[in-house]
Design goal:
The chain has six helices and seven strands.
Length: about 210
Amino acid sequence: YARLAPLYGFWERWAEGKARRSALELAGAPNGGRVLEIAVGPGSALEQLARGNPAGFTIGADLTSAMLQRTRRLFRRRSLPLPALCQCDGRFLPFRDTSFDVVFSSYLLDLLSVSDIARTLQEMRRVMKPSGRLVLVNLSLANPWFNRLWGVLYFILPTLLGGCRPIRLASYLPEAGFAVEEVRRVTEWGIPSEVILARRIRSREQG
């Protein structure tokens, strides 16, 4: 993704904007809360999260310094206060337990292995407050022809696709200790995405 960073903004506007807007609506971050975005990319969603939370604390995390640099440039270009940024791995978040009211992540888990999806979801749950909201966006398996086409491209050029592939992310959440509250399916230019709102399962917290 360090290499793909210069191109990612174009892909984001062309194929991900509609799903990301839907996810931001579901996030419902309260002004004055603590909000974490994991895998900020070029910063488009983080900008909106920070704009809606001027009285709170918003932090963006990404694995690559190239994406964080693009985020810095976005905020400078728009003359906005820069939120806290952290270069870190989503599987090993450097934040305290129960720190955040909202954890937001788009198009991250669909590029991870099954074991890394589980590990990252565990970390997301760990840093969320018991009453927190988890909002996720991923490529969806909802469209059979898209699945076949993407599978061929993924086989030929996985790096060009950033390693992403369609998944059924909602099926991973109960095992990770989340209850799915809402799933929205969004298609933009034939590319299907899934937007998920989930909360921590209280029985797991008590047990």
